[in-house]
Specification:
The structure is a single chain. A two-stranded antiparallel ribbon has the order 1-2. With 469 residues, it is mostly helical. The chain has 18 helices and 2 strands. The chain is globular, with a radius of gyration of 25 Å. It starts with 12 loop residues before the first helix and ends in an 18-residue tail after the last helix.
Amino acid sequence: MAVYNEISPNAPAGEKLLNWVDNRFPASKLYKEHLSEYYAPKNFNFWYIFGSLALLVLVIQIVTGIFLVMHYKPDAALAFASVEYIMRDVPWGWLVRYMHSTGASMFFVVVYMHMFRGLIYGSYRKPRELVWIFGCAIFLCLMAEAFMGYLLPWGQMSYWGAQVIVNLFAAIPFVGPDLALLIRGDYVVGDATLNRFFSFHVIAVPLVLLGLVAAHIIALHEVGSNNPDGVEIKGPNAPKDAAGHPVDGIPFHPYYTVHDIFAVSMFLMVFTAIIFFAPEFGGYFLEYNNFIPADPLKTPAHIAPVWYFTPYYSMLRAITSQMMYALIACVLGAAAFAALKSKLPTLFKGAAVVVAVGVSAMMLAIDAKFWGVVVMGGAVIILFFLPWLDNSPVKSIRYRPDWHKYMYGIFVINFLVLGYLGVQPPSAIGERVSQIGTLFYFGFFLLMPWWSKLGTPKTVPDRIIFAAH
């Protein structure tokens, strides 16, 4: 039976209205649980602004997307002209379009920074595994959303980029050609493809994305936020005040809402500067070929995806017939190492070696193009398993051995190099560097159970280290 809160008849009108709402919807309860009485660690730093910025950009993308849909025509014969109409004839249409296109790139900037913060501070470790998994699912959805939205302007790079990526699915044995046909809706990228991508970009994927964002935030607020020291402020042994609140925590509102508002204002300055002065950002945010109508009879000299996909595109291009021998050597080497070092019975060790030999034979039998698709997808999927790959006794990079910092630094540099190579035309040197970078990327994660335990960590404090400023 519902319990109704009584209020004085002489209370102000605003208080009466709030009480009326609270008796029918838990507005005050939600406000307290997620803002005013949600205690976050005192020592948040610069790296903790990107979650709220990602939420801001998501709102910008939804709002600008709604206005773009009012004038966009999802028709292969009219799509490019409708975008030009938005840019030239719709009042402030150019601003809305540039906000949306720049917002897509800024979304990936803040999400990559947000994920890097989780990586260096161990925000994926127990008890936040689900928070990380929901975050990785958001990243995967965001990639699908961006890829489908990229086709909608129906420019040269949109058309040919979609042609190349969809054709990759045809490399999957047995089901590949039918799968590619299902995605395209036709034998070539055309009007059916545009309509499918439009419906997914505008309706299906955003609904999933919003659900995952809600799950991500609910899971985070259930277990509490991590911090740069990796010390739990809400655990059973964490010190609490007389009211039961964490001594090392402060209410999210007003302290971190003000913190985030300042970050938002700084971000919007950069965001608007790019929109007004460099919306194409040298061809990285909007490729110059995309200002040319799609022409199925004229292939661009160099087809490359948008910058935020290029690290994975580099990995795709790195998998050649020669690279397959290196991958096979890695598989056989890993099986031999496991057989020598593990304490499993001899029968299981032998089975592992036999499986490795079978996998190697299969890798030789199937075209390298398929394995390139597997590697490209695996580069994202492997992130989901990070909570179980990291065996370090401490969470935060602050208390790990110093050489771990260099390892993470090399990882970031390697990722940026792969991204740069992805926008460059294929070359022999670039191919070799991307192959080395691909091996390092996967080695970083697959060998993490081993290298993360090496070295002597520093002593983690019992309470967070915080200096008022």
